[in-house]
Here is the input.
Amino acid sequence: MSSADRGELRAIAEQAARAAGALLRERFEAGGERATASKSTRTDPVSEADLAAERAIRDVITTARPDDAILGEEGGETQEGAGLRWIVDPLDGTVNFLFGVPQWCVSVAVHDDEGGVVGVVFDPLRDELFLASRGDGLPTLNGRELRGSQRAELDTALIATGFAYDAAVREVQAAVVARLLPQVRDVRRMGSAALDLAWTASGRYDAFYERAVQIWDTAAGAVLCEAAGLQVRALEASEQLPSGVIAAPAGLLEALGEIVG
Here is the structure.
């Protein structure tokens, strides 16, 4: 894929993320948003805002790239088997959104047969757009280049994580955090995996890990982190925990993985 082709994809991804972000910001500031249904558990909501934002994203992509596949958290997959696959989370951090917590975002990624090509994470409330594409250098935040952490000492590292909706899984995750917390500077849990990955790519966190995430939660953020020089690896499922992802500088990956893996 040429640089010009990647540039086209970046522009479409940004347009789609900003279209959804504008809609979401308006609804968030108006207040009164309610969950319309739940998904995996009673605490895993979907709102009309999620659905409206995904429609806005799909409209942008299908207008520009009608033959590409689109996988969205709320709307499933269209055009399966196409050469390019858009993976979108129209509102990552729905619980935060519904409770009025200003920590949520829009995530738009493009994959080909080799993996992530483009990743965009847009935080409408802060007007922060994180963007990266494979082979095009460092990721950017509103046009400014970013670099991930190069920390190698676990005891001074700030680690971000998240928890599953399933209460039984959260119980095991709590035990993992209890092991981790005494060995690091501190742990943050903000509620949006996509935004956590973007903040890790920007160096706001040293590393991030989470289990029970889906591909739409991590697709864009993984592109950002890899472009920022971080290592992104899968966390394999165990008897008690589902699979997940870890993103960290090379100097932290093994030590952190031994604790949370």
